[in-house]
Write a structure and sequence with these properties.
Two copies of one chain form a homodimer. Chain A is built from nine helices and twelve strands. The first copy, chain A, is an alpha+beta fold. The first copy, chain A, has two domains: 3-141, 60s Ribosomal Protein L30, Chain: A (2-Layer Sandwich), CATH 3.30.1330.10; 156-308, PurM-like C-terminal domain (Phosphoribosyl-aminoimidazole Synthetase, Chain A, domain 2). In chain A, strands 7-9-6-10-8-11-12 form a seven-stranded mixed beta sheet, with helices on both faces. Chain A has a four-stranded mixed beta sheet with strand order 2-5-3-4. In chain A, strand 3 (81-91), helix 3 (97-114) and strand 4 (117-125) form a beta-alpha-beta unit. The longest helix of chain A has 19 residues, at 60-78. Chain A is globular. Chains A and B meet through strand 1, strand 2, helix 2, strand 3 and strand 4 of A and strand 1, strand 2, helix 2, strand 3 and strand 4 of B. Strand 1 (31-33) of chain A pairs antiparallel with strand 2 (39-49) of chain B.
Chain lengths: 320, 320
Amino acid sequence: MAEGEFAFIRRHLRPLAAHEPAALGLEDDAAVLAPTPGHEIVLTKDAIVAGVHFLADDPAETVAQKLLRVNLSDLAAMGARPIGHLLVFARPAALAEAWIEGFCRGLAADQATYGIGLLGGDTVSTPGPLTLSLTAIGDLPAGSALRRSGARAGDDLWVSGTLGDGALGLRVLTGELAVPPEAAAVLIERYRVPAPRVALGPALRGLATAAIDVSDGLLADLGHVLEASAVGAEVAAAALPLSDAAIGLAGAEDAALTGGDDYELLFTVPADQRNAVDELGRELALRLTRIGCITTERALRVRGADGREITSPRRGWQHF
Amino acid sequence: MAEGEFAFIRRHLRPLAAHEPAALGLEDDAAVLAPTPGHEIVLTKDAIVAGVHFLADDPAETVAQKLLRVNLSDLAAMGARPIGHLLVFARPAALAEAWIEGFCRGLAADQATYGIGLLGGDTVSTPGPLTLSLTAIGDLPAGSALRRSGARAGDDLWVSGTLGDGALGLRVLTGELAVPPEAAAVLIERYRVPAPRVALGPALRGLATAAIDVSDGLLADLGHVLEASAVGAEVAAAALPLSDAAIGLAGAEDAALTGGDDYELLFTVPADQRNAVDELGRELALRLTRIGCITTERALRVRGADGREITSPRRGWQHF
């Protein structure tokens, strides 16, 4: 490790690990984590590349927040509670100090929000674009993980929050979509700083039969559940929850069906537990919407308000 | 996630996770790991970048092996037993399919060697060079982790295997050093495919007072131990273990002192346990060499055969 890398770790990463005994002050070769007895450890790992996964002029703070939050969303989809994370920076020489400081500020704020810390971190240099890789660690009681494979015919299909905002926000940022300033701010914020459903995920253990987070788009992610569970589904387009900012916008329904970057939870629950889900939504003050049901026929059908099937030229949801 | 990424995971990564229940077939959002009761989880994370950490014409198989092995070396330095790993590929579009296949072949071979599997994996595209990030997971009995901070004055200083081969191998590869073909093959192999001390590390729990792996160079890594332990050390240059391939080469002693890429374990043991270390070396059929001792004076001194201190213009070991 080059001398500059030690300085980087000391200066930028060590403060992020200050309150984490497992991080050993980032001074040792690895982090040491004491699991809660009777719990399992849940691990997920993602990388983002400048110019591919975030825009050059995205604020550094929100890049950090989104990187952490998409991983927390993966943990939530399994029903896990977040514990901490490890971070690797692959840094181009030209990366401004101010950008790194903004990134670490955003990360510190989110670590406080979610009650977690940095357990391990490293940095390497790269002649390519800034590349960030994060491993998130969570836990849950042994045997309670939510899987994609548990959906059964007759289950209700639910989704948290609202759909399509992230994809619409990206279209506003790239200039493809013009909307009034207030709506623009809401949609851009949803794209840049998604809200992982860290309270909902663990609350669904023992209630949901399957869960996934909506990162690739509702239909694509639902397709993964259907494939893993060997079932089909019907979705009522009119039931899709849209935000006030999205309602009435051109392409809003399409964004809700196929746009990515929502980071809401899509989950299935036996139909006799409908009241329990409604109760949970009230408890968490979180909109939970029943958007369809699981079917035995292995197809994914979306029906319009008139009951007729809507077909889409987009790959990956009509046939999977 | 783009469709090509699913195909990549299905084709290349899923076979690497085939025997790992914790990986859930790479079908879910995260891996779920059941810790051994009474054990702690050890986590380490590294990234490598094409053109920076490996050479463009390094065989893909050995790139995979080195990436995994340097992380296993970090686990060994903590005294941990490896359990599994997570891998992220940031792939340029031009990366040849044959290269990826070679990489996965090398990884599969090493997974078999070390009895571990892939627990989670992902891929993203990048306009920059191939960047690989690996998180290794291990475990050890609670409270038994080897730290850098436990060295005490009077402890013996030990090192496993031989030193300097990795750095000499790199110099052979870059054409800076000409050696007979047989020695060249040995040194290059040591650079490309280091041997992490996965049996030694766990065996040192309860015996060593501090440990680190030699990745940055003996003196730099010893400096980390001395700093963390608030002590100093004396090293006898004549005691440094050199391989038959390295003995007599120009710069061999310097490579042993300051070259990186050895991935041997450097550790401290109370002087009254000398026989136990010798016995352990015999048991593991691994050369373990006493190269000096820990001192109260917070300085790192290297003495030649005549007892006189050797000074070096290199930064980072005379003063730390």
